[in-house]
Design brief:
Blueprint (H helix, E strand, L loop, with lengths): L3 E8 L2 H13 L5 E14 L2 E15 L3 H11 L8 E4 L5 H11 L5
Antiparallel strand pairs: 1-3, 1-4, 2-3
Helix pairs in contact: 1-2
Length: about 110
């Protein structure tokens, strides 16, 4: 059985989020991407506490695509250090997991 992951990535604006999501979907590296608007992020960056309004991408994929997604994200994302966190999917509705697999097996890089 394939291993599945949920990836998290924050984006500065809707255009960036949609552009990244579209490329990942077109390349069949992800089956579904949720764009969650207007999250407030607080973090330390270069010695300062920063508060930003961002969007959150929730990316559902197979674990074997992580390296390709990371590579594309580094090419497409405007942040110097974009967030990319992968969490394993330990269980899920079998038909949903089968769907992720079927979508991400099409011409995947």
């Amino acid at each position: 059985m394939p291993e599945y992951q949920v990836l998290f990535n924050t984006c500065p604006d809707l255009n960036t989020a949609q552009d990244i999501a579209k490329v990942l979907l077109e390349k069949h590296l992800a089956a579904c991407i949720n764009i969650v608007p207007q999250i407030q992020s607080m973090y330390e960056w270069k010695g300062e506490i920063v508060t930003d309004t961002e969007l959150l991408l929730i990316i559902k994929t197979q674990a074997k695509h992580y390296a390709s997604i990371e590579k594309l994200l580094m090419e497409l994302h405007p942040y110097e250090v974009p967030e990319l966190i992968a969490l394993p999917i330990n269980a899920g509705l079998p038909s949903y997991l089968d769907w992720i697999q079927s979508v991400t097996e099409k011409d995947a890089e």
